[in-house]
# Entry
Amino acid sequence: MGRLSRADGGLDVVRLARMAEAPPFPRSAPLAPDPLTEGAPPTAPPSLRPSAWLPAVAVAGCVGAVLGFHGVPISDLGVFTLYAALGLALPGLLWVRVLYRRPHTLPEELALGLALGYAAEVLCYLPARAAGAPLLVAAWPMGTYALFAAVPRLRAHCRVTRRPKAPLWWSWCLALAVIGLTLWISVGYFAAHPIAGPRGAAPVAALPHLDMIDRLISHGPGGGPFGHDWFVHAHLAAASWITGVEPSVLLFRLAPLPMLAALVVLLGMAGRRFTGSRRQALAALTAAAFVTAPSLYAGTAAGLLTWTPAQEWAMPAQTFGALLFAPLVVLLLDLFGDRASRRGVWLMFAVLLAALAGAKAVYVPLLAAGLLAVVTVEAVKWFSLPRRATAALGLAACALAAQAALLGDAWQGTAVQPLAFVRASWAGLTGAGDPAEAPVSSLAGVTALCLLCGAIPWCGVLGLLRRPRLLARPPVVLALGMGAAGLGALLLLGDPYQAQGDYLQAACPYLAMAAVYGLGCVIRKAGVSFRAGLCAALAGVAAACAVRWVFGVHVPLRPGGGELALYLPYLTLAGVVLAVAALLGAAGLPRPRVWALALVLVTAAGTPAARLGQVLPGPVAPARQTGT
# Structure
């Protein structure tokens, strides 16, 4: 009996130890220390020093100058600015303070408030327009102001309170990111989409958008069908009713910029929660904005080698969906922690999710796949279902069902067609006329090429393989689950406009966070110095640029050219990486350090080398032989 009682006592000690290790939820410790503890502690009302407001002034000046240069009347800019501030951001900010009671900086509150304001506006405009009173959409901000003025407990949230203050360098980095994207979009998007002249002068691809806005202005939801990304057009219709600004000015100029600014701030919030560091969050934000596949060819590539995320963010539907999705990820990262959740957070989550279902069709399936991965991993780890992740998955499933009912047959030709994207990529790379004629061997080779080009920018995730406990954290599992779902949709679905690529692109910002986090972990653990890391990055860029110049492969290939030319540059780059790793190992460096330096080299051979290759002149294209 003594032995038995001693054994029982030992088992009790083990159980108690395991219970002490596991926090209440999600049975995994938070991924990183609370990022809100970084920087200065919360202080009383925000500083009125000019230096604290200079980043915002710089952004406002740049946006105003760009819009004025591209033909936006100052009256339209002023009216739209008042509408965005008083009709969307401020009422949304007030509700964020009530529902989401965590300390945030003022830009973070404004970004969250703007996202919530967009969601509430769309969900209010549709029934108001269906009832024949479109201006009733103004009841949402006006009702908010009246309620907060009448209820003393709510009135307290209108006052300027103590809040954390971000470091000035962080504010400037976010401001410069918004300015850079604005300038990029002004060159690549605004210049190609004029707003002056008759409707027929608009680009052909923009005419369906203008037609949907007109129908939502005139008839509301009864004027459908509208396709599968039409809630942004409901927002533009509501904005046109309230401000009197022409839909073309809203669509081509005014609407994307506040969405883009708020998206940058929200991705910075998500990156801080994901990595626990502002510096790594900045790296993740940069990777998310400028990520591209490492094309080692000259000429116009196709398929996975044509990513231009910043240009895609200029499209209102893409930016609107990304803006509504980013705060959902922020809320989930908070729910994955060990803090008690409030009911207001779930209400905010539900409102944003309802608007997301009609804003961009690709995000709700990605969210459901990521949450399913989190629930599965947590259930396997702890032999019980995580309550919060399961509840979020249930809401995502309801949104997915509502989305299917809302869209119906409006998927515009998207269907299950395995490797349709690969076939189109093969036709673009080889110059073949009919993608259906691609041989099986070519499909296998191009599929491997697409997977490699997608893996190189995010190879930093492999840094978590040396720390499996971090690899199984809920935020990492969420990002990888969404990335896997996006890649699966890319390979399994077919679309006449190659829209299946949107699934993978939608997961890009969160894959970038996982890659930066993994790369940072392996670099810190291996003790890689700044100089060594910089040398490895420069070597990766130089190797990719040298391979591109040496082989001089131009796509599409010349008639009769062998397809082997498509794979030789990438095989050579892989050989260079293996050779460098072997040399470092032979020099006596520890294996963790060799592994870290190799990951830095491969990462730099991706996006940085690809962007540099777009700027530098490429090898001269050989003359094509033409028949007589």
Q: What stands out?
A: Residues 1-44, 624-628 have pLDDT under 50 and may be disordered. The first strand starts at residue 40 and ends at 43. Residues 527-619 form one domain. Strands lie at 40-43, 163-165, 298-299, 415-416, 493-494, 554-555.
